[in-house]
Amino acid sequence: MLRRSAEFEDRERALDPARRMADPWFAINSACNRALDDERARTWGAPELHTACRALDVPVLIIDGARDVRPRTAVDSLTEALPRVHRVTLPDAGHLPWAEDPEGFRKAVAGALWPAAPADGRTAGHGGVARSAVSDSRKSE
Question: pTM for the full model?
Answer without folding.
Answer: 0.63
